[in-house]
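Ticket #4471: structure output looks truncated?

Reporter: J.K.
Steps to reproduce: submitted the chain below (149 residues) through the standard prediction queue, then opened the result file.
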Amino acid sequence: VVLPGFRGVVRMDTVGTAVTIKAAPGPVFSALRQALDSLGVEVVVRDSAAGLVGNMGLKLTRRFAGKQMSTWVDCGIGHTGPTANAYRVNMAILAGVAPAKDGGSSVRVAVAAGAQSFSGPLGDPIACESTGAIENRMLELVRAQVGAS
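Returned output as attached by the reporter:
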């Protein structure tokens, strides 16, 4: 995906950390889709064969999933506070599930974001990093849905 503030393409398969969930990939895939729905993310990528679900083109301002953007991404601090709360944030969220080697499912939730001032191309774009809150929330929702620890 291409995001403001990054010099090139962000490879989503290099973002995030895989965790094991003790449930079969099919139910975990469905639970990931439901987790995205509960966060208010329109699911655009849905490839059950590859085990991928998400949205690579979110355009957000100020709030996401009922909280300030700075809860979810860190784009630095400006003279009015956290930049994520004051800029337009372009975000990609992609979750993948595959069978784990020791049983269950290997799940990776990748979040990448960049921000652009509302002044448009006059302001320098900023690369942001995830705070880990989206990934943690999605994994909590998935575990609750499939009844796994």
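Triage note (M.O.): checked the attachment and the full token line is present. Helices lie at 25-38, 69-72, 133-146.
Status: closed, working as intended.
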